[in-house]
C-alpha cells in the first residue's frame, strides 16, 4: 500500500528555481491604527516603540509618503510604561521620551488612561505636554475600534538569544 502511495507522489519533484523572494508593494490607503501598550516593565518601552516605528516609517517614506492627513496613529499607554511620560522621570527615560516627542511631532497621538494615571499617583500636570489623558483605556480601545481603527498590541518579550545564535 505504501509503495502505491509513494508511486503517486514524485519523490524528487524539483521546485521551480527562483533566485530570490518577491517584494510586494501593497496599495495602502489612509491607515488608522491604535497601538495598545500595556507593558509589565517600563524598560520595555523602547522595544514597544519599535512596533510603532515599523508602522510609521514605511508609510512616511516613498512610495507612500503619507503625512498626518493621510493616516491616523494613536498610542494608548496604561501599564507600567506610563512612568516613562511623567516629567519627573524624563532623565531616566530620556531616549524613549525623545522618540515619543519625535513621533508626536509627526502627528502620532499619545494617550494615557486616566484611571491608570490616578493608580500611579500622577496628575495632568505630571505628564509630558504631548500626552492626552483619557477617561479609561478600556473605553478608548472600544471607541477607536468602533471608528475603524486597527488594533496592534505589541508583544515585548525578554530576549534570550542573539540573532547570531539563532540564525
Automatic annotation (TrEMBL):
Keywords noted in UniProt: Signal
Listed PANTHER family: BLR3518 PROTEIN
Keyword Signal: yes
Entry keyword annotation includes Magnesium: no
Signal peptide location: 1-19
Identification of the protein by name: DsrE family protein
Organism: Hydrogenophaga aromaticivorans
